[in-house]
User: Fold cysteine--tRNA ligase from Glycine soja.
Amino acid sequence: MAEEQAEFRIYNSMSQQKEIFKTKVPGKVSMYVCGVTAYDFSHLGHARAAVSFDILFRYLKHLDYEITYVRNFTDVDDKIIKRANETGEDPLMLSNRFCDEYNADMADLQCKTPSKEPRVSEHLNEIKDMITQIISNGYAYEVDGDVFYAVDKCPNYGMLSGQRLEHNRAGERVAVDSRKRHPADFALWKAAKPGEPSWDSPWGPGRPGWHIECSAMSACYLTHKFDIHGGGIDLIFPHHENEIAQSWAADHESHVSYWMHNGHVTNNNEKMSKSLGNFFTIRQITERYHPLALRHFLISAHYRSPLNYSISQLENSSDAIYYIFQTLQDCKDAVSPLLQGETEKNEKVPQINEAAKECIKKLNVEFQTKMSDDLQTPVILTGALQEALKFVNTSLKMLKVCKWDQFLVLHAWVLQAFSCVGNVPVIHEIYCLSSRRKCRKELSCN
Assistant:
């Protein structure tokens, strides 16, 4: 780690406060993030979760950590089966198609690929083994081929969400079942129904419940003890609460150090979701705006804050992205003679002037301090980075009387700052994108 690096603090949903980040294994980070249920094109809520944790992934890399980043795909689920029945497709074929579409969207948004992307259908043995262990430990029961988790046997149930057991309801994906011993008991395994995909198990043919998959797959790749578990704020209850209960039932030593949750994307201040029908898919937005404009919009608010969708906000982000890349392009054009060695015959070593030094220092300090304070991306986008861009543009206007080197160094610093909050591709690529991926008309393919 860099000696002068500020202590990295992140907000832990479990303690409800910022904490100094310390890993279980020095120099290494183990991180699991809940992915999408693949039955349709992903919407802006999914994009925000992916970009938020991509920011975290990038910054941890910037801090020189070795990271194992696991993000799952749910490819066995009620919603997938329902959609497959509507379209006449095989459920796994349908979910596989939308997994591919999701990955295409992530590539557009410049999100780095996680270390592992496990799918439920490929981890049935791990899931069944964990259920077997939970039953053996006395925390689950079988009824007619279904297996339910007994929530009243978990002494700390509700520790993440703060919901009392007596006030809990069944999860949103779980229908009320009179066979349950407690209304909040949830399914670990569902008995097979006619026309649905199923797998053999000790309790008869069936398929996993929703929650068990993440407990099993996180344990498979990260063990029962790991550093970060992330997802959208809507997953705190029941999904993450049930994950904690399941993992504890399978292994009392299970522990996640930091629970991190991103805020909702709203539309007219109402949560954007497929069930409400008020959502926009990532693809719908990137057909009109450059994907980096969407990425900029998604990080223009702090990751834990609500983010209200609006055309004007996207337009502002589109303008901001164009300004950044136009400045970098102008700067590259200005320093190209130096980059090509045209100034090698100058014997005097160029010096950076004091104004450029101060600008670079401010950009560096603000980036380190604000990103280390629970990833304050809005401050980065509107603070010293903007000042640095303005400094470059002002200096370019004074090109004939300025030193070449101040452009080169400042250009490098702007690139470094922006690269940790969004990948900066080769500059000319921004001008050579397909006509579908526009930032504004100025960035369309000519």
